[in-house]
Design a protein that fits this description.
This protein is mainly α. About 55% of the residues lie in helices and about 5% in strands. It has 9 helices and 4 strands; from the N terminus they run αβββαβααααααα. The strands form 2 sheets. It has a two-stranded antiparallel sheet. The radius of gyration is 32 Å and the shape is rod-shaped. The mean pLDDT is about 95. This is HNH nuclease domain-containing protein. It holds the Pfam family HNH_2.
Amino acid sequence: MAITQKSIKILWAAAAGRCSFQGCEERLCYHEAAEAAPYLLGEMAHIAGEKPGASRHDAQQTEAQRDHYQNLMLLCPTHHTLIDRKENEAVFTVEILHAMKAEHEASVMQRLDQDPGPNKDAVVASILALLEENRQSWAQYGPLSELARSQPHNEAAHAVWVSERLSVIVPNNRMIAEQLKAHRSLFEASDQEAISAFLLHVRGYEQWVQDAIPYAAVKRFPAEFERLIRG
């Protein structure tokens, strides 16, 4: 009985096309070979030997069990040869090979299931949303807003602006700063000066809001950071 297409597909998929021998993980499928047709290096090795006299052969197995995914492991040619040499039968037992296979396939799943983390575009999009919220607060309630210019001595309007600084702008600035610090390596070397300028602005702005420094000491919002994020 031949290995079924179902077992072949499960085996190659579960091993991610890599050798399952512990510590190897050689790539076993090449589809981009220069001036050559795609080719496979992988070999579907029997854990319990396929034929009488083969390493680890189990006469109690049925043909279906012998060629089932559970009794197969994907290997490179080197390690397939190594495990099947009769002098290595005591070293590469059925139990050890099953453990190798399980460890490799579990490692594949773990790596594939890991969150790769945000890319630069995702970080920029998140920062842009927070900057836009800050801009809206500034435009609606800031000192150059229509409300502030039409009612420069309105204490209630000023109180709203103070509240916006504390409840919107400062928290948003903190979140932006945290994202920049966590993902700064995603940005180009040419972007770093603008990022540093923004972080300096954030620190100064919060100190001013807390009445720790005068407004004149706050670094102005860097236009180069705005261009970096808005593109």
